Structure formats: C-alpha cells, structure tokens
Amino acid sequence: MDPKSFLDEKKDQRLNELFEFLRFPSISARSEHQPDIKACAEWLADHMKKIGIEAKIMATKGHPVVYGSLMTSPKNMTILYYGHYDVQPVDPLNLWKTKPFEPTLVGEYIMGRGTTDDKGQLFTHLKALEAYTATANTLPVNVKFMIEGEEESGSEHTEQFIKDNAELLKADVVVVSDTAQYGKNIPAVTYGLRGLAFVEVKITGPDRDLHSGSFGGGIANPINVLCDIIAKMHDKNGKVAIPGFYKDVKPITAWEKKQIKRLPFTVKEFLSKTGSKGIHGEKGYSTMEQIWSRPTLDVNGIMGGYQGEGGKTIIPSWASCKITMRLVPHQKPHDICNKIEKYIKKICPKYVSCEIIKHGGAPGVVVPTDGPWLAAAGKAIKRGFGLEPVFIKEGGSIPVVGTFKSVLGIDTLLLGWGQNDDNAHSPNERFSVKDFERGCYSALALIEELAQVKR
What we know:
By secondary structure, the protein is of the alpha+beta class. The chain has two domains: 3-193 and 364-451, 3-Layer(aba) Sandwich (Aminopeptidase), CATH 3.40.630.10; 196-249 and 295-362, Alpha-Beta Plaits (2-Layer Sandwich), CATH 3.30.70.360. It is 33% helix and 21% strand. The protein has helices spanning 3-9, 11-22, 34-50, 119-133, 158-164, 212-215, 222-231, 254-262, 267-272, 287-293, 333-347, 372-385, 399-408, 433-451; strands at residues 54-58, 65-70, 78-84, 104-106, 109-111, 142-148, 173-176, 188-193, 195-204, 210-211, 296-304, 314-315, 318-327, 353-362, 365-366, 390-394, 412-414, 430-432. The strands form five sheets. Strands 1-2-6-3-7-17 form a six-stranded mixed beta sheet, sandwiched between helices. The longest helix is centred in the last third of the chain and has 19 residues, at 433-451. It starts with a helix and ends with a helix. 42% of the residues are buried.
C-alpha cells in the first residue's frame, strides 16, 4: 500500500485520534491546568512513538517541549516541524455552543478549542508521517518535531530552548502550520511576516492629582501632553514621523505586486469584516501593501486620570500609553525602540518628566521568493487541495520564526490549512473536516516535494 492509499483508508481513525488530542484542556496561561499540559504532552509523545517517531519530553523553565525525530539518511534533507499543543483559555464559556473540550462534529466542522489553533493543523503532519511509517515505504526525508507547550502564553522559554538545543534542532527548513488560507477554497503559502517592537510611555507632571480649578492653566496636564506627543507620531500622509524609521525598509518587489493583484480583494468585503466606515493608511500604497509590506505604529491603549462614574475635576498626576510598531524585514526591533525613545524625549516638553520602557520585540521575516522552498510548497498544496495556491504575507508576527532564522539560520514555510473565520482565540473555535483532510494530503505531498529540493 502506498502512503496516499493509507490516508484514503484511515479517515475515521484520524478523526478519532484528533478528538483524543483535543480533549486535553491544555491551557498554558492558567496554572490550574498544569496537570493537563503534562498529560497532553505525554499523550502526544506516546502517539508519536506509536506511529514510529522517536519522541521524548524535554523540560524547560516553563511548560515542556515534545521533541521527536525520524532520521533516514544523512544524504536526505531534514524538515523541522514546529507547532504547539497548548491552547487559549475558553472564556467566555457561556458563548460556546458546544463543550470546548468535548470535540463535536457540527455540519462540516469539528468544534472545540485547539481545532485550528494549533492541534488540528499540527496533527496533519503527524498523519502524513504515519502514512509512510505504517506502509513500509521509504521516507525520503529526515524529520524532526519541536512541539511547545506555552505558545499561547507568550513562548517565554522557547527562544532559550532553541539556543540551548541548536544542534539537536539542526535542519534544512522549518514547516509551520499555524496560519490560514487566504479565503474559503483559496489555499495559500505565507512567505512573510511582519515583526514587532513594543514600548510604554509615561508622562508625569505634578506629584499627585491636583484640583483643576485651583491649578488648571498653571500646571501642565500630562494627558494633554501625552496626546500631543501621540499626535506627532504620524504626518498628514499617514507616515510615521520618527526620524530614520524607514531607513531599512526595502521597496516591494514586482513579484510581490503581482501576487497581490492575483488576490480577490475588494474594499467593500474588507470593510465588512471590520465594521469601519472607510480605509485609512499610509498614502501611496494599496491596502494589502500597507498591511503586509509596510511598517506601522499604533497606540494600543491610554491610561491616566479619573475613569470612574461621574466627573472628577482634576489635573492628573500622570498619563501613559502602550505603543506597538509592526516591522518589516531588515528593521531591527532594538533600533526602532531606540529611535522612538530619542524622538519622544526630543519633542516632550521640559515641564513634565518622561519615562520610556522598551520591551524589544521580534524582527520581520520573509522566505526568499526566488529560492526552492516556495515552489515546493506551492506544488504540494496544489496536489493536496486540487487548487493553485496564492502567495501571501501576514501582517501579524510569529516570533519563533525569527528565532529559527537568527539562531538556526533556516527559513520557515508557513502553510495554513484553516480559515481566518475559524474563531481561533474565540468561543466556538472550529476546523473544517474538509480542510483538515486536505491538509493531511498536502502534508504528505510536501514530504515528496521537499525531498526533491537540492540541498
């Protein structure tokens, strides 16, 4: 029996095993679920052993990593699969239509926490490997798995784990299925992610809240000062006004422009997903270019002053805000944090004090569009879905992808089988059975396509 025929015959078994995996309430953000995290890791390691993968649980200072490997020949290329077995909290529970940790088939969907983020997508690659190990067909690649247990709570110890185990994780390419298709029946290869830089700004005026009648007009209001600083972060064309902010930004390529034009994007449909009245962004770029290939600066929250019921006539002592900047490849988080600090301190008036806390971030990443990886991934998806994939970028960030590049020196293929409306992180998370199956067949084809890439 060939691997594809094995997949053809084992659909029901695959679903039953996935349901077992999904039943663990492996919520990494809640300490009371630590036993569930441990039990889920043990189940996953045992399942990997059962299908012929050497597996072990490796401790970190947080939740453990499940590591697996199946090495066939030094001559073969090595794929490192990354995923996570932890899931988001389920709150608010009253909005769920099914029990979050009792996976249920509802129409065409598997309903339950972790279905699409990330247990269901991760599981497709294990089932593709099993199709080889269960049929005595020679696996044409070497494989390694790094499956972490704290992605949904910040991956605090993941970077150190990769640094400490760089030799163990050595590979030619990383494969991650933790993203989505572009749209229903529009499979996609994600070839780029924006990075992230994060700072907090605090403006302090008087050493306590003051009476606005007795002191208003003679003492600066920190909220007013902070708002003025925020207003100076962008110019009238929507560009970030920080000197040197765009220094390392490269222009979008002709190939990328071509990929964007292939997408069935309409402003009307885009706005319908947001509830906004109109689009807004940096002038001179299309909406998709703004989201995928241009850096941004956004204030995520403002704090200060009286927030309770009714009024309180004060000049507040302080005001603060949180700012994140989405970065594109070649921009460095620490450099951007330094630039915004310098700019804010320059424009901040001397009659208040200014404190800036820099949290760093993660760099943007891109898979070389002229290399072999994208072509192999595109062929695999076409075989698995029966549809030609589109090539897209993602405006968000997956910090571990940057870590794989900086520590291991390897690129990552982001192959998402789910949909953007699968309710990841929300009540009623779901994963289409059809997409799960097509993901399994694409994962199988990916092994064969990557095996043909010259090392």
